[in-house]
Design goal:
Number of helices: 3
CATH superfamily: Conserved hypothetical protein from pyrococcus furiosus pfu- 392566-001, ParB domain
CATH topology: Conserved hypothetical protein from pyrococcus furiosus pfu- 392566-001, ParB domain
Radius of gyration: 14 Å
Low-confidence stretches: none
Distance between the termini: 37 Å
Structural class: alpha/beta
Number of strands: 5
Strand content: 15-25%
Length: 109
Amino acid sequence: MNEREKLPPIVDRDPKQLISRQTKREMTPNKVKKLRKKISKNGFDRNQPIEVIDVNGKLIIRDGHHRTEAATREKLPSVPVRIYKVTPEIENQYRVDALEAEESRRYEN
């Protein structure tokens, strides 16, 4: 994104509704633990919104997987997000990534 592009507004969404593209193996437990402590102490930092892609109404995480996991475990009702629109090709790649991650998580349990 270049400097001339306008950032999408920050809106609040339930972190449980955000779809991950990462498998359990890609998540760093210590990072999630540190983020949980930070969130518990200070709340979620609105200056660091989760970046998501809107794919037919489903919000797939672009950046912020660990923060989303920490917020979910802390049972936050909402987190700040920026919702980005992308090309159909990128939408398809995010959809495939999310499906592959979901399939992987089923077998990692």
